[in-house]
Amino acid sequence: MAIKGLFLFCIPLLGLAIAQPKKKVPVTQTIVYKQGKEVYKKVCLSCHMEDGGGVPRLNPPLINTTYVAGDKKQLISIVLKGMKERVAIDDEYYSNNMASHAYLSDVEIAAVLTYIRNSFGNKASVVSPAEVKQARANK
Amino acid sequence: MFYCSIVLLLWVVFISTYVVFLRLKCSFMYQKLLFIIFFISVSLMGMAQPNAGLTIPKGFTAVKLVEGYGKVRHIAVTPQGGIYVKLNKLYKTKGILYFKENTTTHQYVLTNSFGNYTGTGIYIKDQYLYASSDEEVFRYKLNEQGDVISTEAPEKVVTGLPSKGEHESKSIVLDNSGNLYVNIGAYSNSCQEQDREKGSMGMNPCPVLNEAGGIWKFNASGNNQTQKAGTRYATGLRNVVGLDWNVQTNSLFVMQHGRDQLHDLFPSLYNAKQSAELPSECMYELHNGTNCGWPYIYYDHLVNKKIVAPEYGGDGIKSTTEYQNPAIAFPAHLAPNGLLFYTGNKFPAKYKNGAFIAFHGSWNRAPLPQEGYYVVFVPFVNGKPTGQWEVFANGFAGAIKTPKGAEHRPCGLAQDAMGAIYVTDDSKGAIYKITYTGK
Predict the structure, then answer these.
(1) What is the CATH number of the domain that holds A71?
(2) DSSP for A28-87?
(3) How many domains does chain A have?
(4) Backbone dihedral region of B418: left (phi > 0), alpha (psi from -120 to 50 degrees) or beta?
(5) Within this chain, do residues B290 and B333 fall inside the same structural domain, yes or no?
(6) Number of domains chain B contains
(7) Using an 8 Å Cβ cutoff, are B242 and B357 in contact?
(8) What are the chain B neighbours of A103 within 8 Å (beta carbons)?
(9) Sign of the C-alpha dihedral computed for residues B344, B350, B356 and B359 taken in this order
(10) Radius of gyration of chain B (CA)
(11) Residues B217 and B361 in one domain
């Protein structure tokens, strides 16, 4: 019994030992990122464009902006509640309203935000489904 | 052709002499000469683009007059040939620029700039320059040379127009009876309860139409007119940027920007390709009281029907005979930003009284490639479009036809007293002049 217990205890250790020497997988290689890309293509691309560049005067770009690469809470909130305020991004204003996308699941929102935070030249931390769930609960 | 052959010749000289140079290791002087040839050929290559990089019909010539003034929207040319443009982003704190041709160098020079407001509309009528911000319309008296007499003291013709984010630009035009027509675009895509939200249904009746989504008419020489002082001339127009008065029919023609996102909002009724191809961008002839049907319907040029919008119970097929029919319908999402009826005598006869349309270029035609970024010509016979439209000037975008990647995006149109037409670009702030030379 004791030996079996020890054996079971060793399995995760063994796993750790194997995982240890491996380099950290870049975000862009993860399944979450790829899933996020699919959500992006389906939901976001038509306005924010394939390259995340947006449309001058109408739809804001997702490149080099604190709205995307900055505070995660604010970014999650924009996806959940939409955005109707006009704000300047690099001295430019954008007219079209963004609708609420609360109908997407926590997993989908986390994935797509992880995708945009690590695409188009952006490099920012991943967004977890738990963080989206938390934001939903707080509203 | 001439430039191309010179460039080719210089390159041949350059490459062959470079090979010789490498073999013989010639003097420093010779090396210098080689580089001079190299630079001349490179700079000539830049100039070698005929017609400023545009593709236009044989016999026409295009020249880029100026470039680098940012978001140059609409344009008006004085009878004396001076050019006024309205900017959507201030250029060195000014929103209106005035260019005049230098009589010796024939270069167009920025002669004056004024107006501390951004906007789109600009028009000249009866010795006045009219210009709009997103909330107001001003006018400036012109002198005999076409110069604004007092740049700092315009009359405020219209004030307090709604500007609520979407479709905020106010395009303007005047008729020959002292009336000013102003577009007040709908601050909504399709009057959904929640704008642009998937599955959200349309408000019925659409409250936006009370104060927007149409053309309002004002007294062109009035003072401080509020929206209430004007009359709603036509309704059911989502957003109009390009508009012009047709002197042949003595009526107003407008180009509507059709709705977006049929597939995004109603994926069970429209696939992505249908959403890219629908709805049509429509030209309407308007009279007092015309209703073009937004947001309740949209036009489908593939079946030539007015289709009930999905927000109002439509299924993509159900049609109606209510509302104004378009004079002509174009493919979806091309974004018509400029309309001009050609009244000059310098172009070949078929252009007389026909319409030029500047299509700004699409952003929402994915998964299809983006489209537009050109100036179209529509022949008119007896005040009606023949339906046989053609691309008149193309190549503004350059290699990449996307809103952000496009080199230039055609926006405003104007004609001068000599019968030349002008096209503005609100991407790099260029102005093109197109003349007919017959060569």
Answers:
(1) 1.10.760.10
(2) GGSHHHHHHHHHIIIIIHHHH-TTS--BTTTB---SS-HHHHS-HHHHHHHHHH-B-S--
(3) 1
(4) alpha
(5) yes
(6) 2
(7) yes
(8) 198
(9) negative
(10) 24
(11) yes
**ipTM value:** 0.78
| Structure tokens given for B67 | 């470039």
Confidence band for A86, pLDDT divided at 50, 70 and 90: confident
Contacts of A124 (CB under 8 A, 6+ apart): A68, A69, A70, A117, A118
Count of C-beta atoms within a 10 Å radius of residue B55: 14
At B1 the pLDDT is 39
**Which residues are B434's β-sheet partners?**
B62, B421
Which whole number is the average pLDDT over B73-79?
98
Side chain identity at residue B130, one-letter code:
Y
Classify residue B26 by burial, with Cβ atoms within 10 Å: 0-12, 13-18, 19+.
middle
pLDDT at B49: 80
Nearest to B366 among A45, A98, A103 (CB): A45
Nearest to B137 by CA among B113, B119, B152: B119
Give the domain range for residue B201: 51-436
Q: Is residue A126 part of a domain?
A: yes
Confidence of residue B165 (pLDDT cuts 50, 70, 90): confident
- What residue has token string 């190299």? B38
Q: Which domain holds residue A57?
A: 24-138
Q: Let me know if residue A7 belongs to a domain.
A: no
Selection from B254, B434, B285 nearest residue B357 by Cα: B254
Q: What is the pLDDT of residues B270-323, one digit of tens each?
A: 999 999 999 999 999 999 999 999 999 999 999 999 999 999 999 999 999 999
B88–chain A Cβ distance below 8 A for any pair:
yes
C-alpha span between B328 and B354 (Å, rounded): 13
Distance between CA atoms of residues B433 and B391, nearest Å: 17
Question: Which of B71, B194, B363 is facing A100, going by the closest CB pair?
Answer: B194
Q: What is the pLDDT of residue A27?
A: 85
Cite the DSSP H helix spans in B259-309. Answer: 262-265, 272-277
Query: What is the predicted pLDDT for the residue at A139?
Result: 64
Instruction: Give the mutation candidate from B87, B368, B404, B411 for the A interface (greatest A CB count, under 10 A).
Output: B404
